[in-house]
Amino acid sequence: MSIHKYNSKGELVEPWEEGYYSVTTILDVRHKQKLWEWKLRVGWEEATNRMSDAQEKGKEIHKALETINQDESILADVSPEAVPFCEGYLRWYDKFEPDVVAREMYLVSERHKYAGTADLICLIDEVLWIVDFKTGSKSIDHGLQLAAYRQAYKEMTGHKARTACLYLTDKTKRGWSWKEYKEPVNTFLAAKKLFDWQVSKEPFKKPQTDANYTGGMLYVPEA
Known about the structure:
Elements: E1 5-6, E2 12-13, E3 20-21, H1 23-27, H2 33-42, H3 44-65, H4 83-96, E4 99-109, E5 114-124, E6 127-134, H5 140-157, E7 162-168, E8 176-181, H6 185-201
Parallel strand pairs: 6-7
Antiparallel strand pairs: 1-2, 1-3, 4-5, 5-6, 7-8
Helix pairs in contact: 2-3, 5-6
């Protein structure tokens, strides 16, 4: 379980400091049956290695996507394994021609006390969308994550948005698939209520020895 907690500026802070837990950290409180079944099937060590590799590749792809529309030459700097994912994104972008409102937008719900980062907020055919990029398998958590983003964005801007995941893959020629999610935010808030109860019973405490849970990294986007 990764603990991501942010201050009001979107900078990572330690778990025992004041701030907002990330949406994905909150959702880790949920029992993930499919994930555990997969770990048991492939073995714990193999699963750990695969997850680590996938996280690193996901970070590389997300970083490339931040600027790829302004400078497609960035493809020359990414690993060969990441290129098909970026090319899939470009195919999607060329097809739908989204009007970008914001990229990597830090979202905070002051009402419900959580935070997260939206990969892309855009207009497609004059409809406002919050889009999250995914480079792995589909998960029921994704709809809850986007419901939380939708709520926070509405609080911050007053605007309602539809939400979708853009799944990027190297398994198909097209390289992308699109799924709209309409999960109610109350389901996410139920998970947060359980998370808050757990933290209240077992609060994070500053260790006696020097430690840095975040490694000094600021504003780490969520995969």
